[in-house]
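does this look right to u?? adenosine-5'-diphosphate version
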Amino acid sequence: MKIVASYSNKGGVGKTASSVNLAHGLAQSGLRVLLCDLDPQGASGFYFRVKPSKKLTDERFFTDVKRFTDSIRGSDYENLDILPSNLTFRDFDVFLSRMKNSRSRLHKALKSVASDYDIVLLDCPPNLSTLSENVFASADAILVPVIPTTLSERSFEQLLEFFAETKLSKKKILGFFSMVQGTKKLHAETIARMRQDYPKRLLDIAVPFSTDVEKMGVHRAPVATFAASSPAARSYDALRHELQQRL
Ligand SMILES: Nc1ncnc2c1ncn2[C@@H]1O[C@H](COP(=O)(O)OP(=O)(O)O)[C@@H](O)[C@H]1O
Ligand SMILES: [Mg+2]
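got this back:
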């Protein structure tokens, strides 16, 4: 079982959009996929029409295997299950602070479903917390959507610095450009500079800005289900390919 996180310290960069579309694409390709919504806002669960989990409201998320597995829901799609979040997921750091080995708890919880899934996707909240450290420790790959603007570039740098300081392997970090607008000079310049600065840490694929992605909220479904041949759907498919090659 591989664990892939969609992570950024910044909000609104495309973590959920990429999690949802990748989860769907990977499941369509025949892999058994679990999408864990770790963000208390529950956007991933919303897109897949899955209700918030009621049982996972305390630290037993990390310790009670039965509670964890009982909270996993099926989706409308074959091979794709969802672990929906709820508002108490905002307290993960409080739960973790009470536990020993507080940085390896998520990995332990996920190991309990290792024989049921080929890939687990983690849709992460936008912060740098003990939960994030659990994500960094457990993930085989960390996808980081980067909008090619100054602040996103800065938060990508900060993430790499954090990895260096805490002696984590940077090899896990796979950035990709998100919401790219070809007409914007700043986008083109930022992409060119970052590709030079971080040649190994950035995937080739770039996800374009597209209203089809915004329409996911109306359809409550992955892009490929209602706009299969759109540039957005094609780019998420290419992202899936590149990710699978890297794994
Ligand atoms: N490629 C894209 N093109 C246009 N809008 C996008 C794209 N990716 C995401 N969005 C929109 O931007 C907002 C934030 O995206 P989301 O995936 O929820 O970000 P995050 O999970 O990082 O907070 C949402 O309204 C979403 O519909
Ligand atoms: Mg999100």
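The pocket of magnesium ion (ligand 2) is lined by residues 15-16, 39, 43, 123 (CB under 6 Å). idk if thats expected tbh
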